[in-house]
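Inverse folding, one chain.
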């Protein structure tokens, strides 16, 4: 297993970083970096995880904030309607739960 760069450890505070394998859990890794990562983390992500996998993560995630999802959808040229956490029905469910 090829280790991930130590600089990414801060994004995985709740798991054993030494056991993370980005080839086995690409969606989990991508989701964290898309939500919390800086420029260096994003550059690492694009170099190591396929664009197709990043797009699948972005369109299917329920963990990304609306702000992050909108930015990455714009950057990857994905229609906002395809991004699950930006869909109207998902936002309405969040409002009912969190009373925002």
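Residues assigned per position:
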């Amino acid at each position: 297993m090829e280790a991930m760069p130590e600089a990414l450890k801060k994004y995985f505070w709740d798991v054993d970083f030494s056991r993370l394998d980005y080839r086995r859990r690409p969606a989990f890794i991508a989701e964290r970096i898309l939500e919390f990562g800086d420029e260096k983390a994003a550059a690492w992500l694009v170099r190591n995880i396929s664009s197709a996998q990043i797009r699948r993560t972005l369109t299917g995630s329920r963990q990304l904030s609306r702000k992050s999802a909108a930015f990455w959808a714009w950057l990857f040229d994905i229609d906002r309607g395809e991004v699950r956490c930006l869909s109207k029905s998902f936002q309405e469910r969040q409002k009912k739960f969190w009373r925002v």
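The chain has one domain: 6-98. Residues 6-98 form one domain.
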